[in-house]
Amino acid sequence: MDKNDLSSLLKKYQQGTCTKEEEQLLFDWLDALEADASNEVAPLNATDMEAIRRSMMEEIPVLTTHKKRYTWLKAAAALVPLIVGTWLLWPRQQKSQLAADWHTISNTGHRIQKLWLPDSSVVYLGAYSTLQYNSSRKVILKEGKAFFDVRTNPAQPFIVSDASGVRTTVLGTSFIAEYNNKVSRIAVATGKVSVQSGARKTVLEPDQRLTCNKGTVSRDVVSSADLLAWTKGETILRNASLYDLILAIREHYGITASTKLDTRKGSYNLRISDKMPLPALLEVVEKISYKPKVHFKLQQDQLSIE
Questions:
Q1: SS (H, E, C) 72-83
Q2: Which DSSP string corresponds to 193-213?
Q3: Among 147, 188, 209, 237, which residue's Cβ finds the most Cβ atoms within 10 Å?
Q4: Any residues with CB less than 8 A from the CB of 32 and at least 6 apart, and which?
Q5: At 41, phi and psi to the nearest 5?
Q6: Cα separation of 171 and 188, whole Å?
Q7: Residue 49: CA atoms inside 13 Å, Cβ hemisphere, count?
Q8: Which is nearest to 239 in space by CA: 209, 271, 269?
């Protein structure tokens, strides 16, 4: 909705001449405005925002939830110039402030990188992984795997999100977050975390892991000691599927494997150190694999599993 349409609809609503379809457009606009308002970036400075709040509150009596939307529309109609100006300035200010506050780190090597965030929380960023962070204890895991040792701050939760929308909130704890091939995983070493995937919220405690894959959510058990071993460059697989093995190969060697086999199958128990050559690992897996029995073909950086 552009400036002229918004101004026109708000004035029509104030005059009581809006159709039901036009009212719905205004409701949709209010929903979008409310969603933007929950963003961590303030659209205007504190003085301007307080002026808007006071002006709008003067128009709003105490109401039930059922009538709240209509009252906000009445207030909005009375404040057309101010709201339209705020709405038009919002995206531009968000963009500039986000660009200034967010930082991107990519680990293009095959060893884990240890990082310190502005709040003194520690991150172990996995090989071939990328994340973004800001000074407000917000992190976006773009791809890969990271272990977070979060500094306690009850006044400001630490939040990790990924591209699938999975959102993990903690106060002070240590956990691993993974995001690969549109699959999200959260596993807790110490403390508790709250994980939200869609409308579903799950609380995880130590030794628990949550996997979110294409709308399905499953929980299993993982050793905290194994999670901590990963921060030292060692991956421990226990009853792992072929999918888990493929991820481990990518994490350690930067090689993406392709296969037509069912990656949900397999039961691998392996300890992969950061000094183990890839050919040695493949040889071991071929010997121990069972249901399915696998064979590898490695040509330069291309690995196929049959």
A1: HHHHHHHCHHHH
A2: EEEEETTEEEEE-TTEEEEEE
A3: 188
A4: none
A5: -95, 120
A6: 13
A7: 8
A8: 269
Domains of the chain: 3-101 (no CATH), 103-227 (2.60.120.1440), 234-305 (3.55.50.30)
The rounded Cα 182 to chain-centroid distance in angstroms is: 11
Interstrand relation of 129-133 and 183-190 (parallel, antiparallel or unpaired): unpaired
Instruction: Using a pLDDT cut of 90, give the percent of the chain over it.
Output: 44
The two counts, helices (H) then strands (E), for the chain are 8, 18
**pTM score, two decimals?**
0.66
What's the full length of the chain, in residues?
A: 306
Average pLDDT, the chain: 79
User: What radius of gyration do the chain's Cα atoms show?
Assistant: 25
Residue pLDDT, tens place only, 66-93? 444 555 555 555 555 555 555 455 555 5
